[in-house]
Design a protein that fits this description.
Elements: H1 5-20, H2 23-30, H3 34-48, H4 57-82, E1 89-95, H5 97-104, H6 108-114, E2 118-124, H7 131-134, E3 138-143, E4 150-158, E5 160-164, H8 166-172, E6 188-189, E7 198-202, E8 205-209, E9 216-217, H9 220-228, E10 234-237, H10 238-247, E11 251-253, E12 258-259, E13 263-270, H11 277-291, H12 297-302, H13 309-313
Parallel strand pairs: 1-2, 1-3, 6-9
Antiparallel strand pairs: 3-13, 4-13, 5-10, 5-11, 7-8, 7-12
């Protein structure tokens, strides 16, 4: 089939609506009036002999195949014009909010400087975005993977740890086992991907704790700050407390015990035959970033030089 300008405009409109989520947003992205986008979608639906293609599952599959095809054409054009050196186009990324802001946001400008032709958009959110449905090129995920439509690459281990301030432990004592946590104020996370119970292990030992306390939030940073100020014991990924452990604002609790939900840190992308060069460049960059060691390892290692819980508190 020969693709004429009219068909190309219709396909571009469908892709924009699928990516942006509405006619108004698609029109803004394409710098066209929303009525133009509506007419192009309507013409495409009539030509395909269907209605409301943009809202159906078949329409979503059609849009995804279009995106793959246009990505391939775009990349081929880039390589022909610039010898495969200059990358251009939009790169949409999704990072976990707290970890992304703390450890990835400071590093990402290096990637932007390497590829100044890219239009980079980063979504920071604790929820798991729908990469295919929302048009993301890649995302970082913590924990268990369950979407078979995604290709995953493990970047490192993700370990859950417990922490509390020296002041809190002086006032309430240091728990010697997971069972002893029942006597403590456990700060509870209520945001996306939260767990109602803490399953912990040490060798062949297993214990399950139902965290209870007087302080809860859907924001990781807020709970960490509450822990620093002596409100209770908090449990998050080691990345979130590495700096606190290093400087002593938080002390690790029950370091010999591990959470059974410890999993990995994964880079995920949609499963497709063709990976755009811009996505491949980001995969290479972030793989190199983590290959040098987890960004927070230096802080965690520095904490080894701090006094232990027992010696610090004189217990």
């Amino acid at each position: 089939m020969n693709l004429d300008k009219r068909q190309a405009d219709e396909f571009a409109a469908l892709l924009a609506v699928a990516r942006e989520g509405s006619f108004v947003a698609a029109a803004s992205a394409l710098q066209r009036h929303s009525t133009v986008i509506s007419k192009r979608i309507g013409a495409l639906e009539r030509r395909l002999g269907t209605r409301r293609v943009r809202l159906t599952e078949a329409g979503a599959r059609f849009a995804e195949r279009l995106r793959i095809a246009t990505d391939a054409i775009f990349e081929a054009e880039q390589e022909a014009a610039a010898g495969g050196v200059e990358l251009r186009g939009r790169l949409r990324l999704a990072f976990p909010a707290a970890m992304g802001r703390q450890w990835l946001a400071p590093a990402l400008p290096d990637f932007a400087r390497r590829y100044p032709g890219l239009d980079i958009e980063v979504d920071y959110a604790e929820r798991y975005v729908d990469l295919v449905g929302e048009g993301f090129d890649a995302a970082l995920r913590l924990g268990t993977l369950g979407d078979s439509r995604l290709v995953a690459r493990k970047l490192g281990d993700h370990r859950i740890v417990l922490g509390a301030s020296p002041d809190y432990l002086e006032r309430h004592g240091v728990p010697a086992s997971p069972g002893a946590l029942a006597a403590h104020n456990l700060l509870r996370y209520t945001g996306p991907v939260s767990t109602p119970e803490w399953r912990m292990r040490r060798g062949n030992l297993r214990e399950t704790i139902l965290p209870a306390g007087s302080y809860r939030s859907n924001d990781i940073g807020a709970l960490l700050e509450a822990a620093r100020q002596g409100i209770g014991i908090v449990g998050f990924g080691d990345w979130s407390m590495a700096r606190d452990f290093a400087v002593g604002t938080l002390i690790q609790v029950l370091p010999q015990w591990h959470f059974a939900i410890d999993e990995g840190i994964y880079l995920v992308r949609p499963s497709r035959q063709f990976t755009p060069a811009r996505t491949g460049a980001f995969i290479q960059w972030i793989t190199r970033l983590f290959a040098g060691g987890l960004p927070w390892d230096a802080g965690a290692q520095a904490s080894d030089n701090n006094p232990t819980v027992t010696s610090r508190l004189g217990k």
